[in-house]
Amino acid sequence: MGKKAVRILMTRFGEGHEDALLKLSRAFSEAGFEVIYTTMHDPDAIVTAALQESVDHIGVTTLPGARIEDFAKLFELLAKKDLSHIQVSAGGFLEEDDIPRIKEMGVVEFFPKGTTFAELIEWSKQHIKHTD
Ligand code: B12
């Protein structure tokens, strides 16, 4: 009681596939997280939203066809705005070789297609924490 919910910004790289974003947002919300949902997909806009909303975590879906450069830009902007404490997780569809690359950049975990919502929520409850 009285404990502030952990805030997650749910977003995407690329256009379309809003349904997945909505389903994910709903699952996180039902699991007790406070979800800020945005369909913006530009790293600049995402970092601005993360700052304004004081989020603890950013979840990115790559289903719409994310580019590896988007992740590089996201981490560059987070560092520039002193927001490197915000962790980033991602999931969806990505070339196998790109998964270790985004993890090197700073993505804490990547959830490929086939991950169940139960697995996702279990991981999130253990790993997504308050940053303040
Ligand atoms: C539904 C769907 C559509 C619908 C979208 C409807 C809508 N309004 O959202 C429609 C038919 C419109 C569509 C269109 C297109 N689609 Co489509 N679509 C799909 C489909 C069948 C399901 C996606 C979905 O909603 N999944 C529901 C989510 C919740 O489940 P999930 O994918 O299993 O995700 C799990 C994990 O990956 C993980 N996860 C996913 N994201 C995230 C994010 C975070 C933060 C976390 C923690 C976890 C996580 O959690 C989920 C649960 O465990 C997939 C194929 C498939 N079977 O997956 C293709 C797919 C995503 N589409 C694809 C493509 C190519 C397209 C089109 C470009 C096709 C075309 N040539 O026109 C267009 C693009 C449209 C656009 N730009 O607007 C490709 C994407 C390839 C890529 N990214 O490089 C896919 C993979 C199909 C394929 N195998 O080629 N599509």
Task: Please characterize this protein's 3D structure.
- The model has no long low-confidence stretch (mean pLDDT 93).
- This protein has a single domain, classed as Rossmann fold (3-Layer(aba) Sandwich).
- The chain is built from five helices and five strands.
- Strands 2-1-3-4-5 form a five-stranded parallel beta sheet, sandwiched between helices.
- Helix 1 links the parallel strand 1 and strand 2.
- Helix content is 42%, strand content 20%.
- It is α/β, with parallel strands linked by helices.
- Helix 2 packs parallel to helix 3 and helix 3 packs parallel to helix 4.
- The structure holds cobalamin (B12).
- Cobalamin (B12) binds next to helix 1, strand 3, strand 4, strand 5 and helix 5.
Draw up the topology in text.
Layout: E1 7-12, H1 18-30, E2 34-37, H2 43-52, E3 57-61, H3 68-80, E4 87-92, H4 98-105, E5 107-112, H5 117-127
Parallel strand pairs: 1-2, 1-3, 3-4, 4-5
This protein binds cobalamin.
Descriptive terms for the model:
5 strands; 132 residues; binds cobalamin; Rossmann fold; alpha/beta
Give a nutshell description of this structure.
The protein is an alpha/beta fold.
Tell me about the biggest sheet? Answer: 5 strands, parallel
Mean pLDDT: 93
The CATH homologous superfamily is named Cobalamin-binding domain
Specify the overall morphology: globular
- Give the topology string: H per helix, E per strand: EHEHEHEHEH
Task: Report strand %.
Answer: 15-25%
Overall number of structural domains: 1
Q: How does CATH name the architecture?
A: 3-Layer(aba) Sandwich
| Ends distance | 18 Å
- Low-pLDDT windows of residues: none
Helix content: 40-55%
